[in-house]
Amino acid sequence: MTQFAKRFSDPTNAARSRDRSTADLAAAAVRQTNARDCLMILLNAEEPLTVADLTSRTGLSRPTVDAVLHDLIAAGPVRTAEPSDSCTPGRPARRFVADPSTTLVAGVEVGAHVVRCTVSDAGGSIVSRVCRRLDGDAATDRLEVITELVTSAVEHRSTGTAGHRPHPRPAAVGLAVPGILDHDQRLVRSGQLPEWTGVRPGAELSRRLGCAVLVETDLKLAAYAEHHLGDIAGNLIYLHLGRRIAVALMVDDQILQGRNRMAGELGAQRGMRWTPSYDDGGGLCWSTGREARPLFDRAAAGDHRALAEIDAFCEQLAPRLATLALTLDPELVIVGGGLSRAGRTLLGPLARQLDRLLDLPVRPELTTSRLTSDASVTGALAYAFERGSEQIFGLPAVPPPWRRLRTAPETDPRTQADRAGTQ
């Protein structure tokens, strides 16, 4: 836990003791709310702010803002700024800025063949991205690989940027895993990581990294990221099309989990196959083999046989997608995964097949993923902010810094190309 977190979490812990009164609990909650409001304004400000600025923007009294700033400065995430050049006579007003560089947060995506890590500061500015490819050997200690990758990403930030203090570990890590998690964060099924069945990766990594590790499935985190970074949609279907096919659902702005976290896990239905060419172990197979890119390249060039094969694939896929659309009534259906890079070559026939099946005056919009490569790892980073707010800031419910994550560039295009059709 950071010094910032300790400063603000200690009153909360004390408030939980038996001898604390209701008034004490209320006062601690108000203090946290005031601190959160001031911190969020400073984190999002484009320039230093004065006490008067914060008083005006928060509606708090000047003494309250002064007290909050005193705590924030002592804890580390806020500092006083250099006096501004002013022609006004007299002593210049004190100005304050957030200093998010004192804390780092990480998002990690793990798969059968790759582990990716993105690190940001507490304000959401991306400071490091690393990726390690794996040979898919079940004997590979992925927990150790993740530990080394996160550590190297944090050390890269600490030693590679002048003027920043060392960061021995991040304050919180979000972890995206392929498969099904139970309520104890145990991986109960994973076609990509069968050796992790029964493992609680978050608990293991928390022990190794010495920080909070918040775990969610990769597709749910991809849907979560797309929901917040793309077009506004309370309900959406995230359809992953790559070597595997799977879905995740957002309902009323929340990841749909269900009673046992099984909502949307259509692959758990015995005998269910998305298409005749799909098997849960190997994934999709095309006339070009397991790699879809050659087929879609030919289709984009106008090859009639390739176009017919893609149209047949969409015709097979559309009935299950139509059933989900009629059940959820979403505003958006987002197609992610490697095949989403095909754009209209895929969306065109898929939209036609859905239109043929849906006898509705209004149909959900069909679009491709905004984060073709980074959806899951970006979701994992944001999830670390959301679920690790107290570890990062010592304050509950500080929202993820979506504004900065929205403008962060994606991974190098060469890395994206390497992954096309493989996930």
Distance between the termini: 34 Å
Strand order of the largest sheet: 6-5-4-7-10
Task: State the assembly state of the protein chains.
Answer: single chain
| Outline type | elongated
Query: What is the radius of gyration computed over CA atoms, rounded to a whole number of angstroms?
Result: 24 Å
Average pLDDT number: 87
Note the beta-strand portion. Answer: 15-25%
Based on secondary structure, the structural category is alpha/beta
How many individual helices? 14
Low-confidence stretches: 159-163, 412-423
Give helix % range.
40-55%
The major sheet is characterized as: 5 strands, mixed
Please explain how this structure is put together:
The strands form five sheets. Strands 6-5-4-7-10 form a five-stranded mixed sheet. Helix content is 42%, strand content 18%. The longest helix is centred in the C-terminal third of the chain and has 25 residues, at 304-328. By secondary structure, it is α/β, with parallel strands linked by helices. Residues 159-163 and 412-423 have low confidence and may be disordered. The chain has helices at 3-15, 22-44, 51-58, 62-75, 142-160, 201-209, 218-229, 293-300, 304-328, 344-357, 375-387, 389-393, 402-407, 413-419, and strands spanning 49-50, 78-80, 95-98, 104-110, 114-121, 126-133, 172-177, 180-181, 187-189, 212-217, 236-241, 245-251, 254-255, 278-279, 283-284, 332-336, 365-368. α1 crosses α4 (62-75).
